Amino acid sequence: MSKPFKLAVVQCKGNALDAGRFETLTRLIREAAAKGGQTILLPELVLHDYFCIEENQAHFDLAHTLESDASKSLQALAKELGVTLVFPFFEKRSAGIYQNSAAVFEADGSIAGLYRKMHIPHDPGFNEKYYFTPGDLGFKSIATKHGNLGVLICWDQWFPEGARLTALQGADVLLYPTAIGWDDSESGSVSPDEAKALEARHLDAWITIQRSHAIANGLFVAAANRVGREGHLRFWGNSFIAGPGGEILARMDSETEGVILADVDPARVEAERRTWPFLRDRRIDAYQGMLHRSGN
Amino acid sequence: MSKPFKLAVVQCKGNALDAGRFETLTRLIREAAAKGGQTILLPELVLHDYFCIEENQAHFDLAHTLESDASKSLQALAKELGVTLVFPFFEKRSAGIYQNSAAVFEADGSIAGLYRKMHIPHDPGFNEKYYFTPGDLGFKSIATKHGNLGVLICWDQWFPEGARLTALQGADVLLYPTAIGWDDSESGSVSPDEAKALEARHLDAWITIQRSHAIANGLFVAAANRVGREGHLRFWGNSFIAGPGGEILARMDSETEGVILADVDPARVEAERRTWPFLRDRRIDAYQGMLHRSGN
């Protein structure tokens, strides 16, 4: 069993490639470490504004490798602070293959692992299928000095399959870098009250589905979301950490930049799974349909 | 697309084979129909007290077929009222094969379908693996006059796989007959305050995991639980109906016998899935691990 560690989640605006914003990002990472954070989670595509709001070929120029200046700088910061850092980035893999990825920088300066977003959304304002080749590394648990980390990204959070497969790989915590928000261009056809109720329902659904992964798999779950308005999108923050019973351990509001922390103890994972032994009772003989699109 | 219908959920104590209790059960079914209920859901093993609280060979005598007096009586009642009735029962399939099942009685007096509980729990006070042969009919949607019904039973509700597979079969609503409660024999080692907090957390987890199935699959979900104390078990009621966004449409308390109702409109299912198109984006090429116990 891996050792307990303190998990920190950073909530912030995007666009960290801007010099002033990069300073804010590194300040928040330092704050997370100063508060005892040993593994630090950042929001999805944190270096950029959410360019997927539109389809523009020029935005592919934003993609980069782990040799980029910003990447190297954050990798060095992780080593300096002695923390494990989950760094989501727009990966340039080759000409024509761009991915929505997250690297795990180890506390000793090495790279512990890489995850490439498996489930790619595409809705008005979230044109991700245009930019991102679907991940091909599968669902993994990445062993680090500070925990067995199940890294997934944003849209993955709506899929119980991704959570289950990552849990079965041995993760003690699912980590979701995220960029999700309300879309003002959607609310034209309903009254302000109805729009407000719908916004509350969507935020609640987002938290509920992730808490359900904690419950179904008996492990910790954390999401780091961005905040701030970008065009017609208002990123809704509410970054949180939940325990293996689905209980909220820490949560931010919908606007503030900052850091939340919670202890992740693998012994809690094992205790929860003894009380609620779902993994014992899965009907793997009857799950073949999970590999199909539909029953018809 | 099937037509909209009104779903009614009956919450009650068990032991309906007792003459007085059977009268209460039929009164509640009549009340559900009188209030407009077209499909009516009953709690798990409603004819019996929760005999799985202990392991006793004599309890196998309780098992019966759909030819039993009580079963025939409820089937006739469904026809009389013109309702579709989901009737959970302790099925005697053959000598040595006993199952935790649910029949769907059609409004015309026929039998629309049968489900046999796939995931079988076993914990102190819930000795179900002793009594119940695991189901072998798989996960199904049962087409009825009043809706495409995805019948599952109790422990199934903790498994996203069962919900997903049933949804993929075309169900507009997942129906969970249930017998779940708090176990007083568990709370010995903690303070009264801690025990109370743990009870609240477990109830909340039970509701959350089922709401998550509504969210992940964009369909309605309902649970009919029993109430009342039986030995060291206090069945926690809180039967509810949730909409395709996971929103609670109706919910009972932890003690009262009664009926709740909500409209189930398949058009809402389709609308929700267009807004949140998760079924479009499943990575069926990467889900092979769902058929395995573990990644190691």
Describe this entry's structure for a reader.
The structure is a homodimer of 296-residue chains. With 296 residues, chain A is of the alpha/beta class. The first copy, chain A, has a single domain (5-291), classed as Nitrilase/N-carbamoyl-D-aminoacid amidohydrolase (4-Layer Sandwich), CATH 3.60.110. The first copy, chain A, has six helices and 15 strands. Chain A has helices at 19-34, 69-81, 128-131, 160-168, 192-217, 266-275; strands at residues 5-11, 39-41, 84-94, 97-105, 111-116, 142-144, 147-151, 173-177, 181-183, 220-224, 227-230, 233-236, 240-242, 248-251, 258-264. A six-stranded mixed sheet of chain A has the order 5-4-3-2-1-15. Chain A has a six-stranded mixed sheet with strand order 6-7-8-10-13-14, with helices on one face. The radius of gyration of chain A is 18 Å and the shape is globular. The model of chain A has no long low-confidence stretch (mean pLDDT 97). Chains A and B meet through helix 4 and helix 5 of A and helix 4 and helix 5 of B.
Topology, element by element:
The structure is a homodimer of 296-residue chains.
Chain A: E1 5-11, H1 19-34, E2 39-41, H2 69-81, E3 84-94, E4 97-105, E5 111-116, H3 128-131, E6 142-144, E7 147-151, H4 160-168, E8 173-177, E9 181-183, H5 192-217, E10 220-224, E11 227-230, E12 233-236, E13 240-242, E14 248-251, E15 258-264, H6 266-275
Parallel strand pairs in A: 1-2, 2-3, 7-8, 8-10
Antiparallel strand pairs in A: 1-15, 3-4, 4-5, 6-7, 9-12, 10-13, 11-12, 13-14
